[in-house]
Amino acid sequence: MELRQKKNTTGGDIGSYYPLFDWLRIILAIVVALKHDDVIQWSNAGNLAVQVFFALSGWLIGGILLSSKKEDLPRFFFNRVTRIWVPYAIAIALLLGASLLRDPVTSKWLEFAFYKLTFVYNFFGPPQLAQFRLQMPLAGTGNHFWSICAEEQFYLLAPFVIVLMPVRLGKSLVLWSLLSVLAVSAQVYGSIALGVTAAMLRYYFGDWHLNKCALIILSAILIASVMCIILDWAPYIFVAPFFSVITVLLLARFGVKTYWGQFVGGMSYPFYLNHWIGVFSAHKLLEPFGLREAPISKVLALVLNLFVAAVLYIVIDYSIKKYRSSWFNNRRGIYSAFAAYSLMAVGLAGGLSFFKG
Q1: Residue 7 carries which DSSP code?
Q2: Residues 189-244 pLDDT 10s
Q3: Which of 24, 79, 65 shows the shortest CA–CA distance to 272?
Q4: CA 99, 100, 102: angle at the middle one, nearest 5?
Q5: Helices and strands (H and E) in the chain: how many
Q6: Which residues contact 49 (CB under 8 A, 6 or more apart)?
Q7: SS3 breakdown of the chain: % helix, strand, coil, rounded to 5?
Q8: What is the DSSP letter of 5?
Q9: Beta-bridge mates of residue 7
Q10: What ranges in 119-211 are assigned the alpha helix state H?
Q11: What region, left, alpha or beta, does residue 185 occupy, with left being phi > 0 and alpha being psi -120 to 50 degrees?
């Protein structure tokens, strides 16, 4: 189903772009950073922001896969590798490089680095966090990389279901509804699966979420989910995915691209990956003055994080976006897919071996 294209009076496309998502991304990334810097005290704040990220990803990437054919998959994997892997690899290099300046390189240190590099950290890293935090690079500072790993795993599985399986099965609302329920129940990929299911509803029924009646119903569900979370009427882990996908649906409003919107939306990914840099730098700069934990340290950390993210976005992410199409060819796309599945296989085999040992 092709997106309907609408034009505003200035000629800008307002039928295929969601400008509110740009601002949502940077807000979510900042929430995670403020939680990790103990500015936000609610224990689930960071996780909830990540769940919304997941639902947003499912809505957008799921929509791409729903309109893709088998021959489009090399480009899909190439885009994932260039858009996600390169900034992620740089983030890992920065983290491990800083860790080498102060941490001993032990077998456990290497193990956790291996998990991050092979996109399986979410399986094997967080379960060991309490016991082996001090043996992790920078005492577990890169623990938030679990979300990048989980998302990459999902998008190795999703193309098989949506694109390669028969249409009646792979693009079945019944199947994806069941998968979403199972994912939420198992507490694995729940928000992403719901995001894909929401994209599938749009694929079949158009922009139903823009109707006034739908807006009222979705708003009511959002309020109910907020009440469930605040008042603990239901387990947070089951409510959060539904809160997340409803939030995405309410903000999925067509509009015009703006320079600053695209800029802050683009820098949200390097901000999320590298937000430890501002915190560490602020502590280092203010510690001689006895202000390491003072409020000014929190403000300085946020400012430094925004600056670092802006620089990384301009130098890395924007450059990739600008030249990615010219870099692509079908062979590179196939190599990207092979590398993705191979890394995952190596990571799972290695992780199981380490655990068994």
Answers
A1: B
A2: 999 999 999 999 999 999 999 999 999 999 999 999 999 999 999 999 999 999 99
A3: 24
A4: 70
A5: 18, 0
A6: 28, 29, 31, 32, 35
A7: 80, 0, 20
A8: P
A9: 13
A10: 121-124, 129-132, 146-159, 167-170, 173-186, 190-205
A11: alpha
